[in-house]
Amino acid sequence: MLNRAVALVAITAFAIGTTLLRLVSASPLMPPPITSQTCSMDQHWNTLDVTFVNDSPKPVRKVRFAVTTASGVLTMIDDVGQYTPGEIVRHRLRTKLKFLYIYGNTRCVPVSVRFQDGTTWQNPSVPSEMEQALPQTPRSRVAFSQCFVGNAIYMNFRNIAQESATEVDLGLVQHDLLVARFREKGTFSPGTLIRREFGYGSMGNVLGDDMMRNRCIVLGVHYLSGATWSNPSPPPQALKGIPFTVTPEDSLAPLTILGCRASSSSSDYNGDWSVTYRNTSSKSMVSADFAIVMHGIIEAAAQDLHNLAPGDGNTTRFLLDDPHVYHPRCVPLRATYADGSTWINPLFASKTSTSD
Is the pTM of this model over 0.90? Predict the structure, then answer.
């Protein structure tokens, strides 16, 4: 697809000589004109704090960032202004995604830049539109433009078939397992954007964490004409949650669990869970991910952002929306070090077929 696009641009530039310089300036082969330095969420204001540098020799008018994690692209966000060459920009950008802060290790990847003179740059590796950035279900003729797990499950999609659909069967996949399923009925006209928000309700344990590798899929479609389409290779179901067997603690793990407790939730009280741990590695640690396992499934997963020198420890607490607490076990999932390297629990990594 990229080679076709580059070839098309080259042919157009050859045919229209007067625009050759503009197209060359927009070539994906040029060095990235923007360097993203920081990308972090503010939990209280639900904003994204971004620091970037205009490395190009031209003033920049607009930058589009893809906010990404290990689960892929979460959202796109634009920064509009006038940024001179070499300028360091520090901005707080508002996002519509609630609970985006629960995703650790977010990155703000520049995907497109518009310069003051009207020329543009496009990241050759990451599309600038969500429909192209998100994984889609082949041959379903349904295109997702949002797939986000926060305080609810948010799905935006379009019927890209030439006929109206009357039913769309949607699913949420985590760790290659189908953990939630939604059957939407109505009239879905071709091209119309459909926005849906699904509360957790009586579903299994849908986890909002970047290590879960969330993916929205289409399981089936019914059309007004009576025609139907069914996903020929749906993932295995785990509608009660992701199963996990706790084994004796790995002596080579860089984290030692010292304590694990949980309290149940009720109609007027949010439960919580806490883990006490120590950095037993030889390197400084900047974050650690944990899961709490009960009933043989992962009940919750969360990240503790805390700088820990070798030998240091910490106790951290997270929300737990579960009225039934029974023999909780806390398990380390990932450790991120100050040098940028990571450790992932091999028992957890084996549940995932894709890599970071």
Answer: no
